[in-house]
Amino acid sequence: MKLILDTANLNDIKYFNEFFPIVGVTTNPTILSKEGGDIVAHLKEIRKIIGDDKELHIQVTETKCDEMVAEAEAIVACFGNKKNTFVKIPATDEGIKATGYLSAKGYKVTMTAILSASQAMIAANAGAAYVAPYVSRLENICDDGVAIVAEIQAIFDACGTETEILAASFKTVRQVLGVALTGAGASTVGSEVMHKLLAHPTTDTSIDGFAADWKRAFGDVTLGELIANAGK
Ligand code: G3P
User: Fold this and answer.
1) pLDDT for 115-135, tens place per residue?
2) What is the DSSP secondary structure assignment for residue 134, as one 8-state letter?
3) Whether this model's pTM surpasses 0.85
4) Ligand 1 pocket, 97 CB below 6 A?
5) Which of these, 62, 76, 160, 197, has the minimum number of CB atoms within 10 Å of its CB?
6) In 3-state terms, what secondary structure has residue 63?
7) Which atom of ligand 1 approaches the CA of 31 most closely?
8) Is the CB of 170 within 6 Å of ligand 1?
9) Which region holds residue 72: left if phi is over 0, alpha if psi is between -120 and 50, else beta?
10) What distance in Å separates the CA atoms of residue 2 and residue 21, rounded to the nearest whole number?
């Protein structure tokens, strides 16, 4: 399952872009509101950090079809191209119409604010590249977010659609793993959960043990230095 970083924080994007195998960055108006300032320059900086090969997902702020389409075209022209810049459009009637139009013109749409499998099915039929179901927001209203992702994936498999799931709104590592087990194509994860996907205290103590045992046996020299000296 592809992993995408769900933040607009430049330090976090620099960090995970360098160290983690993320395929892109997702934003939404709430995420951008946390950064403030010149948000156009900020989004351009995100594109500069991740380069032209990674995905950048940016949400429209318009709510009517024609305006969403015009804004989507402006977003793609400003922050990348039709291949690497995904326009996030909420799952409304106007959004579905805009998605059909944009998809037919070769734009990649991430249909967002998906809370049900039926919304995902309609988004796929309209030509969305991704649908973004909100796992935690479903679980916060006593629904089963991972089960709904599984339902969407089963429908996509049955229909043979090219639309992929980009699951979003995660609060726990277990939710991410649950989504991965459904066969979903991608998940977008915030910085805190992204760190937790890799960090493990027993990994740390194991590494400390390796270092201590090596030092006890061989001192401060590294294996690389021993190899280099062996040839002399
Ligand atoms: O973009 C959608 C996703 O990031 C929402 O996450 O944590 O605000 O529910 P959250």
Assistant:
1) 999 999 999 999 999 999 999
2) B
3) yes
4) no
5) 160
6) coil
7) 4
8) no
9) alpha
10) 9
Indicate whether residue 134 lines ligand 1 (CB < 6 A): yes
CATH number of 2-199: 3.20.20.70
22-80: per-residue pLDDT in tens?
A: 999 999 999 999 999 999 999 999 999 999 999 999 999 999 999 999 999 999 999 99
Q: Residue 34: which residues within 8 A CB-CB, separation 6 or more? A: 8, 9
Q: What residue owns the CA closest to ligand 1's atom 10?
A: 169
What is the enclosing helix (H) or strand (E) of 130?
A: strand 130-133
The one-letter amino acid code at 36 reads G
H helices of the chain, in order, are 10-19, 29-33, 39-50, 65-79, 93-104, 117-125, 135-139, 145-159, 173-181, 191-198, 201-218, 223-230
10 Å CB burial of residue 216 (0-12, 13-18, 19+) is exposed
Q: Of residues 34, 44, 88, 97, which has the active-site annotation?
A: 88
What pLDDT does 231 receive?
Answer: 79
> Is 88 part of the annotated catalytic residue set?
yes
Centre of ligand 1 to C-alpha 34, Å, is: 13
Closest ligand 1 atom to the C-alpha of 30? 8
The closest residue, in CA terms, to atom 7 on ligand 1 is: 169
